[in-house]
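Folding follows sequence. Below is one example:
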Amino acid sequence: MKRISVFSIILVFLVGCSAGGLPVTAPPVPTSPPVPTLESGFIVDANTSEQITSELAGLGSFPRIDEVEFGVVSHLFYTDRPRVLTLTEIAGFEWVRQQIHWKDIEASPGVYYWDEVDRIIADTSGTNIKLLISIVQSPSFYDETHGIPVDPKPFGNFVADMIKRYGGLVTAVEIWNEPNLAIENGGKIDEEAVAHYAEILMEGYRRIKEIRPYTYVVAAAPSSTGVNDVNLAMDDERFLNMLYDYKGGIVKDFFDAQGVHPGAAANPPDTMWPDKPGNPVGWNDHPTHYFRHVETIRELMVENGLAEKQIWLTEYGWATQNNTPGYEYGNVVSMEDQAKFIGDAAQLVYEKYRDETGRSWIGVMFLWNMNFAILWNEEGNPLHEQAAFGILNPDWSPRPAFIALQGIHQRIKREQGKIVDDEP
């Protein structure tokens, strides 16, 4: 979640806070590609993919998520995955969002090394957790800055290979992350860059749906920002309006849900500028500093004829004490505040974010994050801002937010009919 403050633009840009920023070193690239087998239970061969496509084609409109579901952003690479996934289920999360770096998988054009992703898929598939994969960072031979690739076709080949390999074990794919930032577009964000993202989104959608029509395709969440600087960022509302206008609105048919990253700073989820501002000076005088900015994005989508498309909050959360410049607002949020804000946000979405017919216009909300405090502690910096957003302590013990969410998730899922108590 790279939030761009109108007051701290440079500081925020110096320190990224997406899952991709974690300094985890991967092992050397193998000398030959792994040999796919069906023994692991998750490699999908061409015949299986064709059968799936045949069975699902023509079954009607894309399935809508009737009631909001709960997910969390985790880092599952080179860590104790079974422990992370067990804690995920204990907390009551139904989804995990895992970001993958394309550049770490495609070693040369068309040569993919899926080894660690294979292990992540295998471990996740042994649970009741659904998986959203967020794809970022092109190989240098497609874009030297590791941003959005110049040519959409290699990206299409990559996502097609992934879906052929894993089939329905990848429930959803988010096409990139915060594409309204210049850093994701070779250092410049303008109308051409928006058009470029539109083409990547459409190519990814086509290639995924050819193989798995019922894999959710999520349009990337823009960074929550009011900044308009070609060298830094584009206002998220401007970016989305421009995206939806591309080629007469063609892109509206090429995603199933819109990703959103509502900023919150230290503002409680029921506050909103200017009518009910929060307290942290410097982070309370613009709508993009508030969780409820998602309501503005919903209005924008309705105005663009997208009322039937749900929003997925692919990152939301509140930081606590940290040592990272640009995230000082977390220093006024206690662990207890964090727990209350996260719980109140879940209840706000469940109770209020519904259309005139009572349907939830939020599909899934992914908390940022589960286990980054553990990983940053291993790097010697337990107060990094990514760690500050986590709901586990560096020693794996639960923070108050983890415990609060257990009860909140259980109550909401019981009201949704997902939990049925045994009769006495």
